[in-house]
Design goal:
- There is one protein chain.
- The protein is of the alpha+beta class.
- The protein has two domains: about 45 residues, no CATH class; about 30 residues, no CATH class.
- The protein is about 50% helix and about 10% strand.
- It contains four helices and two strands; from the N terminus they run αααββα.
- It has a two-stranded antiparallel sheet.
- A hairpin with an 8-residue loop joins strand 1 and strand 2.
- The longest helix has 18 residues.
- The two termini are about 35 Å apart.
Length: about 80
């Protein structure tokens, strides 16, 4: 028998959201929630990688108004799993 996660993803997200609000920890679909959160994080991070490969970023020096180029490699490093 298929689960709600497999048959109606939107309904599953609404159900999980409600269970989280109710703090019904024992009823959560923890494995699929973990998978979806990890996937969402990767997707969001990758969407920040510029197509051109370069963007202007502030230098981290305190009080510095200087700018440098952030490369796509910089973004990939920030997006890597910890």
């Amino acid at each position: 028998m298929k689960t709600l996660y497999e048959t109606d993803f939107y309904a599953w997200t609404q159900q999980q959201s409600e269970l989280l609000k109710l703090q019904a920890w024992d009823q959560l679909d923890a494995l699929n929630l973990i998978e979806e959160l990890e996937s969402l994080g990767v997707t969001q991070c990758r969407s920040q990688i510029p197509a051109s490969g370069n963007v202007v970023k502030p230098l981290p020096a305190i009080g510095s108004d200087s700018l440098s180029l952030a490369t796509a490699q910089d973004f990939r490093l920030w997006c890597r799993p910890h």
